[in-house]
Amino acid sequence: MQQTAPKTLTQDMIWIQGGTFLMGSDRHYPEEAPARRVQVDGFWMDAHTITNAQFAAFVGATHYVTIAERALDPRLYPGAKPELLVPGSLVFHMTQTRVNLRDVTQWWSYVPGACWHHPEGPGSHLRGREQHPVVQVAYEDAASYAQWAGKDLPTEAEWEFASRGGREGAEFVWGDEFNPNGQWMANTWQGEFPWANSASDGFVGTAPVGSYPPNDYGLYDMAGNVWQWTSDWYATRDPAPSAKTCCIPHNPRGGTLQASFESSKIQIPRKIVKGGSFLCSPNFCRRYRPAARHAQMIDSGMSHVGFRCIRRG
User: Fold this and answer.
1) Which one of 12, 194, 282, 306 has the lowest number of neighbouring Cβ atoms within 10 Å?
2) How far apart are CA 267 and CA 181, in angstroms?
3) Which class for 244: exposed (0-12), middle (13-18), buried (19 or more C-beta within 10 A)?
4) pLDDT, tens digit (0-9, with 9 covering 90-100), for 44-100
5) Are 85 and 169 in contact (CB under 8 A)?
6) Residues 6+ apart with CB under 8 A from 275
7) Is the CB of residue 163 less than 8 Å from the CB of residue 222?
8) Domain edges within the chain
9) In the chain, which ranges are continuous DSSP H helix?
10) CA–CA separation, 158 and 39 (whole Å)
11) What is the tens place of the pLDDT at every residue in 162-191?
């Protein structure tokens, strides 16, 4: 569905006209299937992901303490090593050589003291990264910011509809070619993950928001840079409606808390994140596409997860 030239509510929000679209994909990862028609109403969406500067303003106004900065309850983490039961978050570390891609502990580690303003742990800082997307924010942190701003987090359907920019069925948010005319369109991993990144797109880690061209709706970084929280619980998708039932889902909200528990091997509920990140590469995580989806534990911030907000109506 094509949209007229974007109109702005504020400097940072763009109106996304509602409509129907083909959500998901039958050609990629199994959790993206089935492709199905979905209808969403119009809404306003942040033109870019929330930045460190914006999140700092929220913390300064409310004195909010993120989950990564709070003491952990040992009862919630039976069997955990005592040295890990301290405030902190998950930090990515590039490996030195090829590693077993089935073992994520080769490149992810829990770092005490890592949080949104010390994203790599104690000693790291945000100087020079004020306009980079905030990371190390758990779901509650993102939802709290949205409430403070008078906004919401998008559903998966709202997020995917907006990310496609009216390009029905396109592989990427900008079209079907990954590097049209040799131009980098998103911040992703170039090389063999997790040990060799040429940074041909200009960045090894996160990039300032708006560093790449927007999609046709005027939204920046709807692929790559950081994964983005949605409000939907993660669960296996239901089969697409049959011709007999005929009904196109209207403003669907995916999953339930119970279904999220049932789909998780570690019994921590998970929400859906969308968009991929600077860590996505063809050899490991080809999820810098609008149909891609991933399950993220609600209590965990990470080096590559951020968010943007919407306002309905």
Assistant:
1) 282
2) 45
3) exposed
4) 999 999 999 999 999 999 999 999 999 888 887 788 888 778 999 999 999 999 999
5) no
6) 159, 163, 221, 222, 223, 224, 225, 226, 227, 228, 287, 288, 292
7) yes
8) 12-313
9) 52-62, 139-148, 156-164, 257-262
10) 9
11) 999 999 999 999 999 999 999 999 999 999
Q: Is 193 strand, coil or helix?
A: coil
For 201, how many CA atoms within 13 A lie in the half-sphere containing its CB?
27
- What CA–CA distance (Å, rounded) separates 160 from 289? 9
Alpha-carbon torsion 166, 172, 178, 182, what sign?
A: positive
Two tokens, residue 119:
């994203």
Confidence check: pLDDT of 300 > 50? yes
H or E element at residue 295: strand 294-297
- Classify burial at 41, counting beta carbons within 10 Å of its beta carbon; exposed 0-12, middle 13-18, buried 19 or more: middle
Instruction: Give me the residue label for tokens 């039976």.
Output: 78
The amino acid at residue 274 is K
What tokens appear for 1 in the block? 């569905």
CA trace torsion 229, 34, 17, 243 (10° rounding): -150
Which superfamily does CATH assign the domain made up of 12-313 to? paralog of FGE (formylglycine-generating enzyme) (3.90.1580.10)
Instruction: Please state, in angstroms and rounded to a whole number, the distance separating the CA atoms of residues 298 and 14.
Output: 27
Strand 270-274 and strand 294-297: the pairing is: antiparallel
